[in-house]
Amino acid sequence: MANQPEQTQERADGLEERLIEFAVSIIRLSNKLPNTPSGKHIAGQILRSGTSPAPNYGEARGAESRSDFIHKLSIVLKELNETSIWLRMIDKSNLISSENVLELMNENNELCRIITASIKTIRSGRPKIDKPTVR
């Protein structure tokens, strides 16, 4: 049976890979957008917001403190939230097939829930302080 640090490492590796796959899907989506002024604008915006969560999560994994970790995870969440808005705009404007967009919207929502839960978990954790036993 794997010990707790190994399980935590595996979950973090899995989430990082999932964020990378999400970024790749965003890249593919942006390439499908029409070569119009609105298509180019949205492609640029969603490329920036949709590809940044993966490297920002990588930065969070190397955080120097709990507050630094929370801050960097908050940036990941912020970028995912922005991506959600762009995906909704693409869907409502019918720029491309909604099937592709709906899958990305679902994945984006799941990733937001995971990151939000991670932030809540780390915020609720209290540092362990060894207190002397009073006799």
UniProtKB/TrEMBL annotation:
InterPro entries in the record: 23S_rRNA-intervening_sequence, 23S_rRNA_IVS_sf
Region of interest (Disordered), residue spans: 38-61
Ranges annotated as spanning the membrane: none
Superkingdom field: Bacteria
Pfam families: 23S_rRNA_IVP
Signal peptide: none
Name of protein: Four helix bundle protein
Source organism of the structure: Candidatus Manganitrophus noduliformans
Classification of source organism: Bacteria, Pseudomonadati, Nitrospirota, Nitrospiria, Candidatus Troglogloeales
